[in-house]
Amino acid sequence: MNYNFREIEAKWQKYWANNETFKASNNSNRPKFYALSMFPYPSGAGLHVGHPLGYIATDIYARYKRHKGFNVLHPMGYDSFGLPAEQYAIQTGQHPAITTETNIKRYREQLDQLGFSFDWSREVRTSDPNYYKWTQWVFIQLFNSWYNKNTDKAEAITDLISIFEKEGNAMVNAASDDDAPIFSAEDWANFSEKTKQELLLKYRLTYLADTEVNWCPALGTVLANDEIVNGVSERGGHPVIRKKMTQWSMRITAYAQRLLDGLDTIDWPQPLKDSQTNWIGRSEGASAIFNVISSAIEKHQIEVFTTRPDTIFGASFMTLAPEHELVAKITTPEQKEAVEAYVEATAKRSERDRMADVKTISGAFTGAYAEHPFTKEPVPIWIGDYVLAGYGTGAVMSVPCGDQRDYDFAKHFNIPIPNIFEGVDISEEAFADKEKTIIANSDFLNGLPYKKAVKLAIYELEKLGQGQGKINYRLRDAVFSRQRYWGEPFPVYYVDGMPQMIADKHLPLKLPEVEKYLPTETGEPPLGNATIWAWDAKNNKVVSNEMLKQVQHDEAGHSELDSESHTGVYPLELNTMPGWAGSSQYFNRYMDAHNDEAIYSQDAIDYWEDVDLYIGGSEHATGHLLYSRFWQKFLFDIGVAPKDEFAKKLINQGMITGTSAFIYRTNIDNKITFVSKGRIKELGSYLVEMIEGKELDLRPQNYGALQKIHADVSLVNASDELDIDAFKKWQPEYKDADFILEDGKYIVGREIEKMSKSKYNVVNPDAICEEYGADSLRLYEMFLGPLEQSKPWNTAGITGVHSFLKKLWKLYATVDESIEPSAENLKTLHKTIKKVEEDIEHFSFNTSVSTFMICVNELTAQKCISKAILEPLAILVSPYAPHIAEELWERLGHSQSIAEAPFPKFEEKYLVESSKEYPISFNGKTRFTMELPLDMGKDDIEAAVMAHEKTQAQLQGRTPKKVIVVPGKIVNIVG
Ligand code: ANZ
Q1: Are residues 128 and 158 in the same domain?
Q2: Mode of pairing for the β-strands spanning 970-974 and 915-922
Q3: Would 463 be classed as within a structural domain?
Q4: Is 232 inside a domain boundary?
Q5: Residue 697's pLDDT is what?
């Protein structure tokens, strides 16, 4: 019997689907295990061999845990809202839902063919209204919550309203907008409904505000910070500018400290934790208030944030961000022109540029002065774009003798640098040594070690009422509006300009149909094209825009907002949610994916609780993985989730890189010419080349600059030779190009790069499955190297694991139940069990593959046919190569799937050696060996050796002088 993997794999894939082998029950006495892979965005290109790497690892672990007696949840779904489908829609008019459906079909086929143990009954799609109903629901809960810093958790906004009604907001300790004014209970009672709602927006966990956003004109949308790489959009590489827009924001900053603290409680990779820590960017320091010196009645104060309040005596000027709101107010008439020109100039620079550029020093003097809190000396106030508007308070006290940027700024503008550090060690080393540096020359800070000086400076500032200790975070609230079609609609309508939530029971609010997927002519987002997109608040349904009416104001100027219920027809929100909305709760939804009444039932969440193992890419470190932790903490606060971290353990799989192929293009005599790799160097020198009988002069002045172009790797053979005809067919624009060959061949250049469709270096798993089978592909992906490391793909290597599987298959050709396993057989089996179990527990899947190879080689050499050995071996292999394992299992006489067979138990005793192969020497020369029990005594060993016929043959009747026996080592017969 041959190893017919095609038949076997198709058979078992069908079996698993028909029998719902991997369907997890929410009701089980067994312990739970929740294994999760990051769900994919179903792109048009389908899967390449890099994608399944993490899925295979999760699958092995999930299957292993099943063998170990766990009730395993291993779901899969699709992150199916997103830009590519929308851009395709813009180009072709094809509805993104159709493209998405087609792509999902293809993904499903590809996933099925790899033999994953997914519970497909729980599939979710973020673009499915039955799913996004719950994304909208979470949004509404956030809107209806505020963050109480006293209890350190989210609480109901209705509770906050009660506080306002009773005592106003002076005593409220909340995460809120900085500009929330102080009001009393009486004020509150007298506020109009609109004012009340405006004030509440300053406290809600999702709120509408005018924010400076990253606007990408080319994409027509706002981008999050993590969607921008090197100042341009991650998708498409388009320029991004700063712009003020009214947007929904998520008050993630309320959770900054808990997001940091939580990292200590989860087993996630350190580099990932580090990047979240840096992204959150906690700084401990102080705020200090400087009073602006002015004869006008209106007094201004400038609040600065500093991590070094101990250096305050060195503050010899102040610098404000050019966007700081006080700039216009304090600038003197003489300086107005210069300041305005400077403000205008910096508006053109992105925040990123400003942060990255430490060389250019620019700024302007406002003409104003502030009073130093302690010395009462006047300090000049400057503006400079090295101070960022969005960080701290957007203002700094500048300490040229402590801070390099301040120093450079002072030097550049000739601002006097006071020599207050006389006699104090201000060398860089002394400054960096925070334990012992003495940095301030003042009566009360002098001579103190750093930490004490900081504390004392804060204390003295507090005494003056001009400052306090402050912790600052770099993390910003997350902009949540996108000017896109293919995303979740906000469950929001507007009455008199104020946002109102659609009641939970009327969700989902489904995405409307539009004629065009582009922004409208008036610059509204694509939903502005919808003609049926107004909310009938009486009948709670979406109606035609024609029914929209102006909000009525009665004679007293009250708007419909003032009445308890709205009965009119109102405009709906035109933005949609960002890509990360749907992925921030999907792991929870899988627990009870089709529940229509709630995000999940209490039973389901009580049983599954959280993800035990989450595997996915590290590129999500400060996007999905931060936002999800935030939502989870929120759901925990409102009692919806039992855990405030959603995943106990996380592994980032390394990237599989591709071996890109490059061809080298130049122009010769105005003709596109490709030069074989080995001949590039000749281009620099004088050379006459014959191509198609034409003489070409290859002197440098005759050819254009050499350009490297990707060629699809499928057009190149194993010896790096390009199939020129196929290439011309693939890129018809080059059908008339010339090719300069070497030895009659066009040789491409090779480089390792990220595997990606855009680099034409993708290897398709379908062809590999067809040629070698899914089990070979699974084993090979693991065999490539440690899971977390990045590694290059080389299809040629797969033959090794494929022939291993053939050997494994052969090993089962004859299996005999009646044959007792030998000690050798048992030893091989048990050392394999031990190693494989240890490997899986440590996610070291590559080393298991080589262990299997050794095991099969040994058992083959031992001619093992014992069922007692081969049966457990099939279970060991099954997480890795499940199809062949199922088939062998069936052939061993089982009628149930191998999936739940108990994992073999390792027994130490089989590894303990009980006998020894003694080398038997005559006068120091080994003549033969003898296997004897290890516990045999010296005399018995001697007797046994002497009785052996080979000994007799050696001695030929002589009596030896001496027999030396070293138990456990050797026997030497002398004489
Ligand atoms: C005085 C001082 C003296 C400072 C000294 C540093 C060293 P991190 O650690 O990043 O939080 N700063 C504050 N707000 C800023 C803004 N909006 N744009 C640019 N710089 C700003 O850094 C905090 C320090 O960065 C603060 O402490 C402030 O400079 C500056 F010897 O104040 B420091």
Answers
A1: no
A2: parallel
A3: yes
A4: no
A5: 61
CATH number reported for the structural domain that contains residue 57 in this entry: 3.40.50.620
Identify the CATH number of the domain in which residue 440 sits: 3.90.740.10
Do 809 and 725 share a structural domain? no
Number of domains the chain is built from: 6
The ligand 1 atom at the shortest distance from the C-alpha of residue 392 is 14
pLDDT tens, position by position, 20-38: 999 999 999 999 999 999 9
> pLDDT tens across 205-230, in order?
999 988 777 788 887 777 777 677 77
Q: Is there a single domain that holds both residue 716 and residue 670? A: yes
Do the domain assignments include residue 884? yes
d(CA 872, CA 836): 12
Centre of ligand 1 to C-alpha 396, Å, is 6
Please state whether beta strands 241-250 and 282-293 pair in parallel, antiparallel, or not at all (unpaired): unpaired
Atom 31 of ligand 1 has which residue's CA nearest to it? 402
Which residues does residue 917 pair with via DSSP β-bridges, in sequence order?
Answer: 931
Ligand 1, atom 8: closest residue by C-alpha: 283
Give the residue, by CA position, lying nearest to ligand 1 atom 1.
306
Determine, yes or no, domain membership for 497. Answer: no
Q: Exposure of 344 by Cβ count < 10 A (0-12 exposed, 13-18 middle, 19+ buried)?
A: exposed
Compute CA 277 distance to the chain's CA centroid, rounded to the nearest angstrom: 14
How many residues appear in the chain?
975
Mutational test site, ligand 1, from 287, 302, 396, 420, max ligand atoms within 8 Å of CB: 396
Asked if 739 and 875 sit in the same domain, the reply is no
Q: Are residues 132 and 149 in the same domain?
A: no
Give me the residue label for tokens 């120091």. Answer: 924
State what percent of residues in the chain have pLDDT above 70.
94
User: Of all protein residues, whose CA lies closest to atom 26 belonging to ligand 1?
Assistant: 306
Give the residue numbers spanning the domain of 682: 665-759
The residue nearest atom 9 of ligand 1, judged by CA position, is 283
pLDDT at position 439 is 46
Report residues whose beta carbon is within 6 angstroms of any ligand 1 atom.
283, 305-308, 311, 321, 387-388, 391-392, 394, 396-397, 399, 402-403, 472
